[in-house]
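#onboarding

Welcome to the new folks! Below is a worked example of what a typical request in this channel looks like: someone posts a single protein sequence, and someone else replies with the predicted structure as tokens. Don't worry about understanding the tokens yet, we'll cover that in week two.

Example request:
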Amino acid sequence: MEQRFWSTRLAPAGLLVEHAEINTDCVFLDVRAAALSATCPCCGTSSRRTQSRYMRQAADLPIAGRRVVLRVTVRRFWCDAVLCRRRIFAERFGAAVLSPLSRRTGRLETIVHHLGLALGGRPAAAFADRLMMPVSNDTLLRVVRRRTEQPRDKLAIIGIDDFAFRRGQRYGTIVCDLERCRPVTLLPDREQATSQAWLANHPSIVTVARDRGGGYGEAIAKALPHADQVADRWHLMENASRAFLDAVSKSMRHIRKTVGSTIIDPKLLTYAERLQYEGYLRRRRQTRPFWNCRSRVCRSSRLSSVPDIAASSSAASCAVSVPTCSVSGRVRSRNGFPGLTAAGTKARAMLRRSGAKCVRKAFVARSASSLNGRGADALLKGPIKAHLPARLRHEASPGS
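Example response:
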């Protein structure tokens, strides 16, 4: 009678209690299956030949204000079926008793599910802790989502858009049920034929929300001509925000003049506006040396003639622009200064690829005429040689 009382009250149905250990705040119960045989999950053949045993732990309902931990002895059996692909299998206890890989018994899982439905995440976690059933708020929400019944109604309102399996390389298509706010399927690509074939198999769809592109629109028009096509809220807000920012950026000069201030306070900007403003400042810092150099060249051009500017190393080195015509083997730029020949252009490219600051400064100090005269050999002389990479030395060597 004592063994029957323990098996029916302390442990779930189908488990027998072999030993109990009571601590201050926890009760450990050593249990095992009451059945002598087990059924193979692959072929359904019953077997009684035990191969080995292992231990697993699972939480159960509390007893007298103490947590209960079941130390379950699980047996492994040999499968005697000749054609079965599984030779060894572990016994199953059923979802109502203890599911595979579960850390809670079936009856405790039911209580956790009801707590999550009634109280939500954090309130249910606090209440379960007072009931000696410690469960985190994330676990409560996962149990609620997992035990929610899958909808069996036909699809009526869906949303379709593309997503990236791997950005820049492989893209797919996601279809969501907008009535239940959950994904329906993932298509392997974003081709029009794939989306059209899937939509043709669901004629119950009456409304489709999509992006502003034409690919999904054509697929929907061919597969579901009776369905209404609408633009989803995200793309509407994105397009409206982009158009607004473009209009503001074009009129920013007039806006600043009207406001009377040319200084922008980053604290008053939104997150998206702050990102754009920081990008504007970064580009301004990067291009400031170029514009300073260009302004010096323009001032020199107003004070000197073309031959004098060609002899000036600082002006000629900064005057690099798109050539327009060729005179006696030398290239003349649009602003009237002599440019670089083929050898000088090669030298300039190698200097830019080197990345060393002293190399770039040495290039600025040299004139375009010196590079044109000596070609790429001038790179291997002076302080440039020590900072030039080995591969560029080989390219700059004569005959390369």
